[in-house]
Amino acid sequence: MAYSVLIVDDEAGIRESLREIFEDEGYEVFTAEAGEEAIQMTDSMPVDLVFLDIWLPDRDGMEVLEDIKTKRERLPVVMISGHGTVEIAVKATKIGAYDFLEKPLSLERVLITAQRALERGTIEREYQVLGSLLVTPRQ
Asked: 4-133: which CATH architecture?
């Protein structure tokens, strides 16, 4: 199964570098340079994973994360930033981010994080399906 990744970053170079990395690994890749565009894409497209920059031209990446998680709670989102702090990383994970990566991004770290986030998303979906199939015992 080919997974799809949405890369959201205002820097074209970052978007293109990540696109190349993921396409080389067989992923379907979508890109957005702004928060509103990203929200529209997660609402209307079959996205399995999001890499989301903290600083975007139209909205704060944390606000975008909140919007995405409100609508698609199980969609894994990896936050990326060149200006991150521990405080921001903790806040992002409390909102629901899967992980937080600092720029410059390491190829190996990006791919490992993506793989783990997708595996976790698959397990959560399977758990949800199995839970809905279980019948509660009568008392």
From this structure: 3-Layer(aba) Sandwich (3.40)
